[in-house]
Each structure stands twice: as structure tokens, then as C-alpha cells.
């Protein structure tokens, strides 16, 4: 196991995605502790929509408390949260979905972006404008799919979502890739890849890879 000083604070919107991120890091031998900013998707969406200043203050307070406990890295394992709260490496190094977008989008002419809410879509769109202005983005926000996954039956939630038709449309349009811009959707990545000929960019999986590399390299 990695020493305690290498512990990663996994910050996300709900206990589900913060727990998922921590479990994925632990599977790679990295000590991690989950921190949820809200108790449910409904509460998270309400904070993002109505109280973004309160949410950002809580986020930065958590970073500061983690730094004082000698945590070395934070993994922001929530696409929508990364679009709402400002974050840099001033207090604690943060591995963020925005970093992944900056890496991925310049290499794509177009994409189908699957997100859990409109805040997450906005984060991808802003990054695309900054890094690849010619990028064509078809964005789909599906909060009910997030809630279905949290309910404990990802397969049923996927079947009820209608995403198969959306994936087929993206293929007909000739889009380059599918971007899973919601860490909840890491749980259904295999269901998507089984029904889609396009490359699938799993932002959650890339976040875990980048965090593991940062811990092991001491960056």
C-alpha cells in the first residue's frame, strides 16, 4: 500500500461517485478517502444551481483541511462540480476533469458528450472553445440516468435511458468519439462500448489513471 502521506482526497458530488473514485484508486494500491459535497444528486444539483458560492467555499475549506492533514493530492471526481467551483494547485494539487478535457479535445474533430447535468456540459463546451474552436459537440444531459445508477441497477437505468438511440444517431453523424462527462457513467462504460463502434473516452477512468501516476511519481 502507498504510505499515508500519499493519501488522496476524492471529492465528488455524492457519496456514490466519491466512493466509486476512492474504490478505483484503492484497487490500484493508492490510499484514498471519499468526500461528498452533497447527500444526493438532487441536493448537489440544488447547490450548483442556487448556492454555487456556498459550494465553492465548502470545496476550498475541504482542500485546506486536507492539506493540513498532509494529504498530498485531491481528485475532483465529478464533472459538473469541476465546472462550478474554481480550483487550481494553490492549496493542494487537484486532478480535475477540466485537465482531461484539455488533453482529449484537441485530438477530436467532434464528439457526443454524455453528461449528468448541464453544468457538466458547459465545462466541456467551454474547454472545447478554448482548446479546439472547430470542435463539433453534440451534448446530452441525463440527470435521470444518474439517479438510476445511484439507485443500484445501472443496467436497468441504461436500458430505460434511450441512450442506444442517441449512440446510433452519433454514429450516423460520423462523430469521432463518445465522451463520458459524468463520473457516474464510468459504471456503465462497458454497456456503452458494447453497443457503440465509436471510441469511448471515460473521463472518470482517465482521472484515476492521472491520479495514480501523480501519486507514484510524486508530482
Folded structure, characterized:
The protein has 219 residues and is an alpha/beta fold. The chain folds into two domains: 4-97 and 206-217, 3-Layer(aba) Sandwich (Rossmann fold), CATH 3.40.50.1860; 99-203, Rossmann fold. 52% of the residues lie in helices and 16% in strands. It contains eleven helices and eight strands. It has helices at residues 15-27, 41-50, 52-68, 79-84, 97-104, 118-131, 143-150, 154-161, 163-172, 189-193, 203-217, and strands at residues 8-12, 32-36, 73-76, 94-95, 110-115, 136-141, 178-181, 200-202. The strands form two sheets. It has a four-stranded parallel β-sheet with strand order 2-1-3-4, sandwiched between helices. Helix 4 links the parallel strand 3 and strand 4. The chain is globular, with a radius of gyration of 17 Å. It starts with 7 loop residues before the first strand and ends with a helix. Residues 1-5 have low confidence and may be disordered.
Amino acid at each position: 500500500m502507498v504510505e499515508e502521506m500519499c493519501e488522496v482526497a476524492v471529492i465528488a458530488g455524492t457519496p456514490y461517485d466519491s466512493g466509486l473514485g476512492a474504490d478505483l484508486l484503492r484497487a490500484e494500491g493508492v490510499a484514498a478517502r471519499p468526500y461528498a459535497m452533497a447527500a444526493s444528486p438532487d441536493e448537489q444539483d440544488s447547490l450548483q444551481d442556487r448556492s454555487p458560492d456556498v459550494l465553492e467555499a465548502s470545496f476550498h475549506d475541504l482542500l485546506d483541511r486536507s492539506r493540513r492533514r498532509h494529504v498530498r493530492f485531491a481528485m475532483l471526481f465529478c464533472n459538473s462540480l469541476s465546472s462550478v467551483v474554481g480550483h487550481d494547485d494553490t492549496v493542494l494539487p487537484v486532478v480535475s476533469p477540466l485537465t482531461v478535457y484539455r488533453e482529449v479535445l484537441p485530438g477530436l474533430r467532434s464528439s457526443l458528450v454524455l453528461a449528468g447535468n448541464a453544468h457538466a456540459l458547459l465545462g466541456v463546451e467551454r474547454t472545447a472553445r478554448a482548446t479546439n474552436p472547430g470542435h463539433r459537440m453534440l451534448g446530452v444531459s441525463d440527470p435521470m440516468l444518474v439517479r438510476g445508477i445511484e439507485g443500484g441497477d445501472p443496467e436497468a437505468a441504461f436500458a430505460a435511458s434511450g441512450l442506444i438511440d442517441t449512440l446510433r444517431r452519433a454514429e450516423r453523424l460520423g462523430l469521432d468519439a463518445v465522451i463520458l462527462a459524468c463520473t457516474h457513467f464510468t459504471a456503465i462504460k462497458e454497456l456503452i462500448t458494447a453497443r457503440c463502434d465509436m471510441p469511448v473516452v471515460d473521463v472518470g477512468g482517465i482521472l484515476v489513471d492521472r491520479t495514480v501516476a501523480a501519486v507514484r511519481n510524486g508530482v
